[in-house]
Amino acid sequence: MTEPDVFILADRTLNGVVAQIRDDQWAMEMPPSFARRATDQAPTLRDIITYHAYDDSWVPDMLAGRTMDEVGKANFKGDLLGADPKASFAAIVAKACAAAGEMDDLERTVHCSFGDFTAREYFYQINMFRGLRARDIAEVIGVDSQLPEALVQGIWDEISAHAEEWRALGVFPAAVAVADDAPLLDRLLGLTGRDPNQGPS
Question: Quick one: which of 7, 71, 85, 197 has the most CB atoms within 10 Å?
Fold first, then answer.
């Protein structure tokens, strides 16, 4: 699969998990592994999905090569989920996936808030984030956390060669030892510092 293909599968997988959130779960406090740097307060599930909606809202502009200043840094601030969070999130995902599907130049410069990258490198970051978070959120809300085999393979192919480099930069915590013959999802989780035998903590 190409990087845009992996993105579309990852984003749709995350949307599939969000679609299974019960009405009584939106306000639940998330485990410490979901803590955000900007605050010491534990985020709620809605906070986490709101951030994903915010991140996804930027995808079309990022892939088009626009800067945040051109778009407006505050353009996607605020409540993006509204009264029908599942429908709102699905609509944002649809726009992001459409933009990824039209991407025809993986060497185009993407202007992120933390630096400039090629579109290919940008996809590496956002594909992993969505795919692994789909699994993490599914674990928290108690639904099937298995990821599509094609998605696991796609993320593995994108990040395995860069994992130690990124770990040195603080992207991943220390790797968790997993048997070489373990399922690829377990090896991917271990590579990114997640214990496949434990839920989110």
Answer: 7
